Amino acid sequence: MIRTSATLMTLTAALALGACAKKAPQELPPPPVDQSAGTQTPPPSGPIPGSQQDFVATVTSDTVHFDTDQSDVRPEDYAILQSQARWLARYPAKRISIEGHADERGTRDYNLALGERRANAAKNYLASLGVDPSRMSTISYGKERPIALGSDPQSWAQNRRAVTVTVQ
Amino acid sequence: MTRLLLSVASFALTFAIATASAQQPAPTAPPASASAPQAEQGLSGSVTDETNEAVRIAIPPMPTQQDVNTPAGSTASLGVRIAEVIASDLKNSGLFQPTGPNGVGAITIPEVTAPAYDRWSGMGAEALVQGFIRSAGGDADITVGCYLYDVSLKTEQTRLGYVVPSRDWRRAAHKCADAIYARLTGESPFFDSRIAYIAETGPKDNRVKRLAIMDSDGANHRFITNGQSIALTPRFSPDYKSIVYVSYVGRRVRIYAYDIGAGTQKLVTESENAVFAPRWSPDGRTILFSMASGGTTNIYKVSAAGGGTPVRLTNTPGINVGGSFSPDGSKIVFESDRSGKQQIYVMNVDGSGQQRISFGGGSYATPEWSPRGDLIAFTKLGSFNVGVMTPSGQSERILTHGWQDEAPSWSPNGRVLQFFRTSQGRSGKSEIWQVDLTGVNERRIPTPVDGSDPAWGPLLP
Q1: pLDDT in tens, B7-35
Q2: Looking at this predicted complex, what is its ipTM?
Q3: Distance CA A166, CA B252 (A)
Q4: Residue from B289, B421, B426, B430 whose CB has the most chain A CBs within 10 Å, to mutate
Q5: What is the pLDDT of residues B58-77, one digit of tens each?
Q6: CATH superfamily name and code, A59-167
Q7: Are residues B252 and B162 in the same domain?
Q8: Interface touch A112/B252, C-beta < 8 Å
């Protein structure tokens, strides 16, 4: 039983890492899976298929970025949304919410509108890849939830984003 | 006394505005002295530019005939505190240099109506505020008398009597300060008014944002929401009974109307889309809001009474957002990026006649129509500062110079703006600030925690 407990703890740690990956750099590999467990317990095989952790671990990134005051998906981010569309095709019962964000150098109301416009742009691109629009909702956080805390162009660039999260 | 005839002339020159504002009559004032001098003869006002000096005004403690206890403290202590609030209001306007009540000797009840002028002129005071406080004690109302004198002319300028529950003693002080401000500046009063705003705590990437209210000087502060959901952009209804604001409760962006008396709230409009930027019409019957749908945002209006289908006022691609009614309710100023960048537009209240008014270069946001009708306040983007222009887009002037100053809200008399100032860097700290139309008199409004989105309500009756 001691071995099992240790394994469960390791699994919990792996899941926690998976959750953290949402905020990590885009190129982060899937969280490591502990392989040291004994033969009595089947080795954990990573995040539960179809889960938010699985989504984050599988897609190229959960986040696309935007130019200042712009809401067109950048061509270099098409592959990110394509990877999200592939995952959604694999789990057709899953729904997503796309969270649109703006940097701090805009006024509050306008940024709410801009965040919605960005989320909508990502949603439209996913729809063009065959994702049923009824599976996708959008919410704008405007400038209320920055991910980078600096007041500099690099931070602002990171904060101009649309983040896909699975729901249900 | 000509030096004290500091009139609205400096404003008139700067902004080319109409100056003859209707004077607000002092509420429940006892009959003013019949020999009240004309403005041309006596102590008069100063909504000043930087070259004018603040009026030196003495404010001794207000005596009480009989020191009795009230729930707000003894009448003797209230007499001191009321004088303190009057002094603070006048000082914070930037137009007055008060002396007292601390460090100024006591006066007697008979002196209230018969000032010892030589004593005050000997101190260098140009004006004098005296008053008294009276109460039967216990839960009885308090009566506050307030008198303004011209020390050189040795004449009474105005007087005011105010009867309030003792817990509202600060309102009596604000009313007195308002009467003095109005008499000496020729402007409408504004101290006796309230602010709705968003109280902020926590780290920059996870700010807790709560709806809160306070008096115009930061006193009588009260939190309304508990911070579990993000709250944004509150606005007091014109009768102060309700606050509309944006809430993220249920992970949706929607507008609620919070009933202050009942402590309940209701959705302003039902929609699957994000609904935000609520604004009241001056008569309180209509609420403007912005709704984002499919990547575009447009401005709508809906009955404040609830029910009814919202009416769409704008219909262009891009973002049309915000809005502020002209004081007569006939026009709305709003922002739109239909030209490619955020600019200020004016339309009729039915949505017709949409016209851009901002052509000063750069881009503009958060237009707010002055309650006097003569100016539009805005956030200038790029520099991120607060400025004003006329409703036809002329005479643009930038008033503040912070790192990020945003979302001006007018004082009830249209002569002062509150806005919020966000610090550069990782703290995410924001504070509520106030500036008058000269841009010179700027100060921070004290709040228990950080603050943003101030919304100034009208003058209380």
Answers
A1: 333 333 233 222 233 333 333 334 333 33
A2: 0.88
A3: 16
A4: B426
A5: 999 999 999 999 999 999 99
A6: OmpA-like domain (3.30.1330.60)
A7: no
A8: no
